[in-house]
Design goal:
The chain is an all-alpha fold. The chain is 47% helix and 0% strand.
Length: 126
């Protein structure tokens, strides 16, 4: 159980959305609407995108944000499995409002690789 779960809070990257309900929910109950059929999130700087990815990873793995950098190899450093990787992808799709193919998730070895792929995906929506 991670720190936010113990405190009864949800992260902004949690697919169930933040507890505060600050974001509007789509009919399926997801914050900000579904990943497909909505406009992509506003343009983010690389630093903002990196923090978003690192936050999603730390939320899923229950680690501290500071323990994850762009050079972090999720497989070698944290032993992330395919279900955890899919959870990270779902959180990023909801926050960034962009469809992320499974092949992109599997191709990214490090957090920096994931940021690179997302920068390209956000520059040219699918």
């Amino acid at each position: 159980m991670d720190r936010m779960e113990r405190q009864g809070e949800r992260s902004p990257t949690d697919p169930a959305g933040p507890v505060s309900g600050a974001e509007p929910a789509d009919p399926g109950g997801r914050p900000g609407g579904p990943a497909t059929g909505t406009a992509p999130a506003p343009a983010l700087t690389r630093a903002e995108l990196s923090r978003t990815v690192r936050t999603a990873v730390s939320d899923v793995l229950g680690t501290e944000l500071d323990d994850i950098g762009e050079s972090t190899d999720l497989g070698a450093d944290f032993g992330i499995d395919s279900l955890e990787l899919m959870d990270v992808g779902a959180r990023l799709e909801n926050v960034l409002r962009v469809k992320i193919p499974v092949s992109d998730l599997l191709e990214a070895r490090t957090v920096g690789d994931a940021v690179d792929l997302l920068e390209k995906r956000l520059a040219r929506p699918a």
